[in-house]
Amino acid sequence: MSLETEFEQVTMPLEFPFTITRGTQTTAENVIVRIEDEDGTAGIGGAAPSSHYGETAATVEAVLPDLLAVVEDVGDPHQLERIERRLRETIERNPAARCAVSIALHDLVTKRLDVPLYRYWGLDPTETVESSYTIGIDDTERMREKTETALERGFGTLKVKLGTDRDLEIIEAIRDVAPDVRLYVDANEAWTPREAVSRIEALAEYDLEFVEQPVAATNPEGLRYVYERAALPIAADESCLTAADVPQIAERCDVANLKLMKCGSLREARRIVHAARAHGLQVMCGCMTESNASIAAACHLAPLLDYADLDGSLLLADDPYDGVSMPGGRINLEGLERPGTGVVRS
Ligand SMILES: [Mg+2]
Q1: Distance 10 CA to ligand 1 centre (A)
Q2: Tens digit of pLDDT for each residue in 162-181?
Q3: How far apart are CA 290 and CA 293, in angstroms?
Q4: Which residues form the Mandelate racemase/muconate lactonizing enzyme C-terminal domain (predicted)?
Q5: What is the average pLDDT across 286-296?
Q6: Three-state DSSP state, 324
């Protein structure tokens, strides 16, 4: 068998500037990989690099030729385990770059078999969770308005970015306009351990599901300190990159938040799910600001999850790709009428 590969960078403006404690983003730079077999069937995957993990569109483009050379050398897209192992041996870091290749291969393989990815995995498309929609940091009044807009668009689950000097004011304003919505918050490592415990005690008044990454990932004992004292469940995001991190975080949090762009492949994402379950953790899948070239694939993990935060494409002003429909955050795998991940150019 022979495979042809190509990639291109796409720059996508966001609908609104997106701010977390580490900074503001107005565009998403993704790199799209295409792998075509000799019958002309093509798989598509996306890399959404995060500078927090040392990747940019430029680093993705720099390593893709070596990664795609592995794919062409193996030649058989169904050899997913072998290809992914060789991708890791070729480029140890750069998980977003490796993930774009993994997604494109999974899309190709399942298109060749003419089944949606969830069906290839044997998952139940009726068992999906609802994705949250993220409210980035802004002035409090603007965050309240964004919440109202999200409610008008039918979202029933919201994630709110915190880590400001007015975190309680923000949650009070949001609860004021959204008293019944399912709500969780993400501090993106902003608090010290002691600060986290007292903030979480105050936040617990507002009926939150959990608090994501209260303290720095570089402070695992701080995360344990918070977990043992916190008034709300704790999710680990920056502290949970690959399946190898799961034993470490197992006694420091309640929820493992995996992301394709941190773990580097769809097979590794499933290993994280299973490792987390084995350690008694709940599982969430989050995302970067990503097009449906990668979000569509993440949607197929939904039947394995307790929480999904897969709004990456929804935060874009205009996504050049369609994927799995997500009206009001409801991941509609059952309604997907295309094989593969469901990705198509919009
Ligand atoms: Mg997070």
Answers
A1: 24
A2: 999 999 999 999 999 999 99
A3: 8
A4: 140-233
A5: 98
A6: coil
